[in-house]
Specification:
alpha+beta; 10-stranded antiparallel beta sheet
Length: 232
């Protein structure tokens, strides 16, 4: 992953104690950023955005496909399957948590998926992730300011991507992992965030998928939940 020095420099300029900054940086999590590219340096295509797979879900448009075999094993700290395919479907017309507007499909390795239309190919890189909204606490008296530091410096340590696996969610309004009725003992984690595609308008929207860590390890993707957040 990239050096975190831009974060340290900005925090130092704001007068945040270095010991607190280093404690905050101990919470950095890796994530897999899938980005548009036509140059895979001889490696496999990590996924597709838009287009149309031959796997469909009635009433739910296709968003993205992830080739899990192309995602490095150390790209995240969540128990992703080492292979297989994830397909994300969603209808953003009414992305209410009580409405059946999304579906996640996992296909085991060896199940072929054909793409048609004009899908965008995605490459993958490993990037650091931190919360963009912190909270002051006994351990982090400058937690809110540290979240602001990440907001300011994130682009210097990673370019992001259309699809992100793992890491922390980027929060506009509600944190999809902690803001809903999720029991902390169930160990909910961010599985994926999608921020680009034909369905997204101009509201800086993003779709988050979250899942219990144990369900992810068991490949129970039918138990994943999704939340839509936008800058408004």
């Amino acid at each position: 992953m990239a050096t975190m020095d831009p974060f340290r420099d900005e925090a130092r300029n704001r007068g945040i104690p270095e010991a607190e900054v280093e404690r905050w940086l101990e919470t950095v999590r890796p994530c897999a950023a899938l980005y548009w590219t036509d140059d895979h340096a001889g490696g496999p295509v990590a996924g597709f955005l838009d287009g149309q797979p031959d796997v469909t879900v009635p009433g739910k448009p296709f968003l993205a496909l992830v080739n899990l075999a192309a995602v490095p094993a150390d790209a995240t700290d969540i128990p992703l399957p080492p292979d297989g395919t994830l397909l994300f479907f969603a209808d953003f017309d009414d992305p209410d948590p009580d409405v059946d507007w999304h579906q996640l499909v996992y296909l085991p390795a060896g199940t072929a998926v054909a793409m048609s239309g004009e899908p965008a190919e995605l490459g993958v890189r490993v990037e650091p992730s931190l919360p963009n909204r912190g909270a002051d606490s006994a351990e982090f008296p400058h937690g809110d300011e540290l979240g602001s530091v990440w907001w300011e410096t994130k682009g210097q340590m990673g370019k992001g991507g259309a699809v992100k696996l793992g890491g922390y969610p980027w929060v506009w309004n509600a944190d999809p992992v902690t803001s809903w009725d999720h029991d902390p003992d169930d160990d909910w984690v961010l599985l994926a965030t999608i921020t680009s595609g034909e369905q997204f308008g101009s509201d800086l929207g993003m779709a988050h998928w979250v899942i219990r860590r144990a369900d992810l390890a068991a490949r129970r993707f039918d138990r994943a939940e999704a939340y839509y957040d936008s800058f408004d």
